[in-house]
Amino acid sequence: MKKWKKQQVLCLLLVCMVVLFGCSRTRIIDKLGIVHVFGFDQAENGELIGTALIPDYTSSKEGGQIKSIEEQVPTGGLFAPRMSTHTSTPIELAKIRVVLFGKNYAESGIQHMIDRFIINPQIGTQLQIAASTHSAKETLNAFKQEKSLTLAERLQHNMERQYLPYTNLHYFLNHFYGEGTDAYVPMLTLDDQNRVKVDGIGVFKEDQLKLHLNPDQTTLFSYVKSESSQATYRIQHREDEQKEIITFRSFKTKSNWDWNQKEKQLKLHLQLSVTLTQIPDRFDLEKTKDTSEMEKIVEKDLEKGLADLFAILQENEVDPVGIGNIVRSQDRSWEEETFYKDYASLPISVDVNLKIIHSGLEG
Amino acid sequence: MFRKKRQRQTKNYETVEKSISDILEKAKKSSDFTTISPFEDNSLQISFYKTLIDASILKESILPYLKKETTAIIQLSELKKVIPIEGINITNDLAVVDKGLHDGAVVIYFREKNNEFALLDINYPRLGQRETNDTQNEFSVIGPKVGFIEDLTTNLHLIRNHLNTSDLIFEELVIDTRARTKVTIAYLDGVTNPEYVNTAKQRLEKLDIDVSFDNTQLEQLISDDTSTPFPLFISTERVDRAVGSLVNGQVVIISDKSSYAVIGPVNLMEFFSNPEDFYLPSIVASFFKLIRIFGMIFSIFATSFYVAILTFHFEVIPKDLLGPIIISRANVPFPPVIEVLFLEITIDLLREAGARLPAKIGQTLGIVGGIVIGQATVEAALTSSILLIIVALAALSSFTTPIYKMSNAVRLLRYPFILLAAIWGGFGIYVGVLFLIAHLTRLKSLGVPLLLPLYPYRKGGVMKSFVTLNTSKHDKRPWYLRPLSLKKFSPVSDKDPKDGLNHE
Fold it and tell me: Can you give the residue ranges of the Spore germination protein N-terminal domain (chain A) (predicted)?
């Protein structure tokens, strides 16, 4: 008798567990609209326009079918329900790989949307966040024409092997909310054949896109910002009579900052190990003299370029390098407000130390 | 209450014969019972079951000598002088006669004097037994391939021959009430903890069963927990495995008419080791053992994770895998659970059919199962091709477990996990793992916890249960089995001569 009671209790417990926990809704993988890229634009009346690219694997064996859905909504929370009215499967945001901000929207402020990214547990911080020089809708429609889903890879390999500084949502949030630094995102643009290409970085001031750095400036920026940048840089030497072009690819960079507390001066020591990929014929790098001359030319050019870069950043009062943070690490009495009041006039001097590790390899 | 029980134990299920004529009358009903009288006056009778005796001994060593002494035999005791056979037993106990007849003895008696019988034991237990004793089901590439057969004396011989020590004790018990199967408990005196021997002996003695068909059935009858899918004893047909566990201080139970030796007490990780592990270099052997453990885990969880991920957690699939999985599932009309259950049951049907089919048709089954069913289900869009790979791998890895009973348990376990995954996803698998661990920790083998070196934790045993050590480092018995002596051997560490041709 007692044993039966025990079993009954166990059965009841199991039934309860099934009924109570079993309410979780199934999301069967082939019956979902999995958003791949999401773009945000600002409509003229202040509402948001969302563009989602959803790969449609099920319609054909080969895949490659991409569906794009646009919807204008008053607030971000309504995107999923409104978009679902267009689709035969529920919209799932969990696998978003790239979030793209159109130019208008990025310039008018993205604070509200970034706050939503933080509270949404479905979204991973590995995703790429980017801004476009056109509207997100235009960019994504151009990307859809390419029939590929490789936007995230296009950004990522440019970060790992080319001139973009490494970033993703995790880094972005750190820069966005952190003190003494401003957020930056990779910029996308459309070339004359209407293809999507990576074009430098965009720098935010608070939550508004303020400055667009071109690829050359971005390269210099990556040298300072990321230690393992493999960006290629081009130097035009002797512009007067015949042009001489030097290109090199960095291998390892190390930047040391010296903060002079008394004179309020900042000095950057940049150590750069590079591979020379193209040099004028008159240099023979087997000779020490030519090597040191080459180093001098490049160092000088880089110092000038970096000084110009800092001038531009200071002029626009943006701080993607995180100078505020660097000073804070060496100055106990640092305060954000007072520091950025004088930020534009902060003297920053640059000292580049170049090391040629090898040369002659094209590529 | 106690009295009732005791009565039941002594109760005899067989009919009891009162007199010798009853015995003979009853035996004559069987066509294989023969009574011959070597002399014309019919005074001396020889009765036997011709299916149990060695007919050649009867013809060559009994009948000729009897015929020579035509008239001399008046007393049965004279037979001892006449017949050159040992084991002549003269008795007047009817029960002994009855038993002797069924053990393959020849009964010689005078027709007139029904109070004395001579029993000549000329049984032939190997009659009808196979001669080949290759290991059929526990194969290994390296190592002896001798296995047990269905005859007790042969099996005992194999063990005694391999482990030639006076410490090796065979204790014989007769367990069945009807078939009177002989069961032998083997252990090493001074090594095996006597508690295990006593436990095993007590459980066997308390058995009340009419016919025991196989040792594996006995194993379940004396098992600590009968409602578990896990085996609590290792049943092996390999002689080296049986001898190895004897040396380690375990008890081996061998019974007549069974080609399996039962080893106890055991722990869970022993089910994943193989005698071959000790014939290979320890790094290789450890790798293989880890592969087997991985295979077991993969086999249990692969398909349930497939169900959980495809039904609830698509987020964890890498982006590059998302396309192929969705494309392969695009035309499948079922939810993942049905799809998985369909394939899993198909594989189990194939396995069961493969085990039951006559050997000659077995090859056809491979073609039917492998090509037709596998290929056709995918083409007919009943399952996805990715699932087919996962299920096939899981089935393959379940067969890596060396002990067949364990691999069956592993095969069975995946079904509850698939169902749990279908109801609750990853959480369900988690709940299932908790239940599984709770169940495993409760299991015991001859009173010893099954998860022994892992739980209850015994220091130093954890590493040993996952990797196989060097033979020279294997000099101690597993102390958690509480053997009476711990040290097995002490190898010389430096085996090189200090001066020699190649010593530099």
Answer: 27-189
B357 part of a folded domain: yes
Q: Could B314 and A27 be called an inter-chain contact, meaning their C-beta atoms sit closer than 8 Å?
A: yes
CA-CA distance, B477 to B491, in Å (whole number)? 14
The counts of H helices and E strands in chain A are 11, 14
- Which of chain A's residues have a Cβ under 8 Å away from the Cβ of B319? 95, 97, 149, 152
For residue A53, which residues of chain B lie inside 8 Å, CB to CB? Answer: none
pLDDT at position B9, please? 47
- Domain of residue B202, residue span: 152-266
Average confidence (pLDDT) over B238-263: 92
**Does residue A167 contact residue A135 with C-beta atoms inside 8 Å?**
no
Does the residue B14 lie in any domain?
no
User: Nearest CA to B261 among B291, B282, B240?
Assistant: B240
pLDDT for the residue A60: 59
Q: Averaged over A173-201, what is the pLDDT? A: 91
Closest Cα of chain A to B199: distance in Å?
27
Q: Between B372 and B441, whose confidence is greater?
A: B441
pLDDT band (50, 70, 90) for residue B7: very low
Task: Print burial letters for A205-225: b (CB count within 10 Å at least 16), e (below 16).
Answer: eebebbbbbebbbbbbbbbbb
Domains and CATH numbers, chain A: 30-213 (no CATH), 216-363 (3.30.300.210)
Distance CA A111, CA A118 (A): 11
